Amino acid sequence: MLLGTVVGQVWATRKEATLNGLRLLVIQPYLKGGGDSAETIVAVDPIGVDVGERVLVVYGRAARHAIGRGHDIGFQSAIVAVVDGAEIAGDSVGQTAETDRRSGAKPGRKT
Amino acid sequence: MLLGTVVGQVWATRKEATLNGLRLLVIQPYLKGGGDSAETIVAVDPIGVDVGERVLVVYGRAARHAIGRGHDIGFQSAIVAVVDGAEIAGDSVGQTAETDRRSGAKPGRKT
Amino acid sequence: MLLGTVVGQVWATRKEATLNGLRLLVIQPYLKGGGDSAETIVAVDPIGVDVGERVLVVYGRAARHAIGRGHDIGFQSAIVAVVDGAEIAGDSVGQTAETDRRSGAKPGRKT
Amino acid sequence: MLLGTVVGQVWATRKEATLNGLRLLVIQPYLKGGGDSAETIVAVDPIGVDVGERVLVVYGRAARHAIGRGHDIGFQSAIVAVVDGAEIAGDSVGQTAETDRRSGAKPGRKT
Amino acid sequence: MLLGTVVGQVWATRKEATLNGLRLLVIQPYLKGGGDSAETIVAVDPIGVDVGERVLVVYGRAARHAIGRGHDIGFQSAIVAVVDGAEIAGDSVGQTAETDRRSGAKPGRKT
Known about the structure:
111 residues
């Protein structure tokens, strides 16, 4: 599973039928120390997450289970949790990067 | 799922029989900030995408479902969506890099 | 399988139902020579591991087996072993980085 | 699927029984712009490819299908196509790097 | 499949029951040109390999097949071959890095 931040959304009209009605969110993986990853992944969102929130993303069978539509689906990654907070290597990671800023915490620094 | 741009096409005569009749497109992964990835992946195209268009790519079972030929196929990645647009970390990403240029937007910059 | 160190924990209230009651630990992959990886992965912990301990992490079916809840689960990685020690390229790797320090060993150096 | 160049071969006497009689080729992934990747992968070759040729490689179920021996096999990647040519980001990529040189084209440059 | 060198071993007392009795080896991926990768993977060893030997490693179903215990196992990677030698991009790669040195060959250089 991957810890990341929702940084955006993708819209598509021409698509696999099983993608209809699903939100497609862009997630940036979390790097220890608060660094900024250039890579992103796209995951479907069955929970209703806002841009900026920190989430857990899964792939494959776990993603199919999270969406609950059986095996024959045309996607492979899904959000399975909205993170309330985390403690990583002595650093506090809040629900959003915005929360970190308002609390005076630098991303990747212990508050 | 991976967000990327179709940057080319591959032709092959000697190949696994289940690849017959399928277009093989080369996709470059999207990097946040508009950077240029050297890595590429090859995916089959059941939708009919043009070079330059931005797409979503899936692997494994999701790719087999998108092509609709059951389990016994000799490929593993497929295009499942043509992207109309995206908002990523405050940047607008258009349907193609060309669209971004014509609208005066720099790739990776908000228009 | 991946050798890594438990560097933290994630808490989440809104989540896939099959994640209820499972600890979500953040693991940093081991790098040869004792270097520090910025990437992390999140795995469920069926063993009861402490932050700082070195562990083995698996993905997919092996993770589902380790948790013992069959196929329909919304996660994909799990801790399957707590490492007592390792010898890697002539270096001794202890149960925790703390153990390495107390024994006067530098991480990634033979004691 | 991965586009790459066959750069070598591996020989092994002590091995999983299902690897008997299969050629094990070393493939270097293609990088956009003609760069040189240090990473390699090893794939079985059911087609009969020469060193220097450009190929498509698949993993997992697609590889098992390409070899045609059902599910119980001890390998995971296979060559499924020999590339005749490709157009990638305006560059022509020939059947081999040698072809590119004889035609006066620099790898990664349009001929 | 991955070509790599066995660089160490891991010991664990608290572990998934299906790991009992299996050797856990640490493998460093081969880099073209003889470079030194910091990343490592851990694989079970059904063959009886020594530290220093070059091996092929597989993941997932292929690993389960190599161990021969069916599907319900708590690991995901296994060694399936001990490499006698390889020719990669004109370089000879011996059975061990030690062999390369005794023959006067620099790792990654043709002998």
